[in-house]
Amino acid sequence: MQKQVEKIRNRRPPRHSGTGVLLWILIALAVLICAGMLTIAPYMMNGSQADVTVRIPKNATMQNVTDTLNKYYPEGYVKKVVNLLTIYGFEPTERHGLYVLPKGATPFATMRKLSRGAQTPVRLTINGFRSLPYLSERMARKMEFSSDDFMKALNDSAYLAKYDLKPGQALALFLEDTYDVYWTATPYEVLDKIGQNYTTFWTSGKKEVARDELNLSPAEMMTLASIVDEETNQVLEKGRIGRLYVNRLDKGMKLQADPTVKFALGKFELQRITGEHLQTDSPYNTYRVAGLPPGPIRTTSRRTLEEILQSKPSADIYMCARPDFSGFHNFAATYDEHLQNARRYQEALNERGIK
Questions:
Q1: At 181, which helix (H) or strand (E)?
Q2: Mean pLDDT throughout 181-206?
């Protein structure tokens, strides 16, 4: 019995070695996680307080990308982005394009945006452009190509022939709208996008109405609509004014449209057209030259075209701005009636001192 008691006393408590090892493993993991968080945290810092647009041109180097980022972000932020791009194996020449980095983007998010090569589309809005050079210059501001490159495409006879247009009618291709394209798109790729919109509008049904009811081609309709748009902002009058000009064309009369004189002079701000202005020697001066001008005097919209296509026949031959300067017009079928309307308008101009 005594020996049994001694054996019991001499027994050692069991060692819980497994529990101790697990504890040390958990502690080590916690340390690694903390260290990892401390390492990663700087790469998750917030970036710019506004959206940033980064352009990576052809044949760009990493230094080019770094210099661009330095314009918008702190040096420490840029270093982290460059480090991540380097680790990822980023090649600037393979990511040629425009990228919009959102407000507050972390270095990691910026790296992902640039390395994936998912370009941000550029939005081109066509609205009220009065000349091809000006339109080209405005387009080139948002695109990688130059204004000269775009103008060359607009004067490409073979390309414009696809739309039954001539170089002098190139402005007709630009239906007023908003177009999303990539910054890297070529002039022809942009024109393809715009031309698709033009082609979609001019269905066989619309072409038939223009030809059979108005005796005009789509290109001529675009020119007519451009004059109407310069004559008035009142949508309710656009169809009637368009029909009036069709009536004059059918009778072999000159259009005598004041906006064409302004276009010929390049003075769109003129409020009063004088006899001297009417003598301007230009194919766009419809007081001197019969028929439609060689091409549009501005870009036009679907709405204006639809209003003209849907206009009802009328006896209108003359029109004159109303003396209340409301933007509306008085219409007349006879010259005598027109003279009375014109006299009232001239008196209103004199009263306001408009010369």
A1: strand 177-181
A2: 96
When pLDDT is cut at 50, 70 and 90, the band that residue 312 belongs to is: very high
**pLDDT of 236-284, one tens digit each?**
999 999 999 999 999 999 999 999 999 999 988 888 888 899 999 999 9
Identify whether the C-beta of residue 84 lies closer than 8 Å to the C-beta of residue 145: no
Report the alpha-carbon distance of residue 255 to residue 286 in Å, rounded.
6
Question: How is residue 246 written in tokens?
Answer: 């069709």
> What is the tens place of the pLDDT at every residue in 12-60?
555 555 666 666 566 556 545 444 444 444 544 555 678 899 999 999 9
Burial of 205 per CB tally in 10 Å (0-12, 13-18, 19+): exposed
Beta bridge pairs of residue 99: 54
pTM of this prediction exceeds 0.85: no
Instruction: Give the tokens for residue 238.
Output: 């656009």
Rounded CA separation 107/44 (Å): 6
Helices 204-214 and 218-231: crossing angle in degrees, nearest 10, is: 70
Contact assessment for residue 113 and residue 173, using Cβ atoms and an 8 Å cutoff: no
Gyration radius of the chain's alpha carbons: 35
Asked if residue 83 lies in contact with residue 119, where contact means CB atoms within 8 angstroms, the answer is no
> So what's the pLDDT on residue 2?
55
Contacts 24+ apart (CB under 8 A), 245-248: 246/214, 246/215, 246/216, 247/314, 247/315, 247/316, 247/317, 248/317
Show contacts of 323-327: CB within 8 Å, 24+ apart: 323/347, 323/348, 324/348, 327/232, 327/233, 327/234
Chain centroid to Cα 156, Å, comes to 22
Locate 66 and state its tokens.
């770094």
Q: Is the pLDDT of residue 10 over 80?
A: no
Q: Among residues 68, 133, 128, 127, which one has the least CA distance to residue 97? A: 68
Kindly tell me the number of DSSP H helices and DSSP E strands found in the chain: 16, 6
**DSSP-derived 3-state class of residue 29:** helix
H/E element, 65: helix 62-70
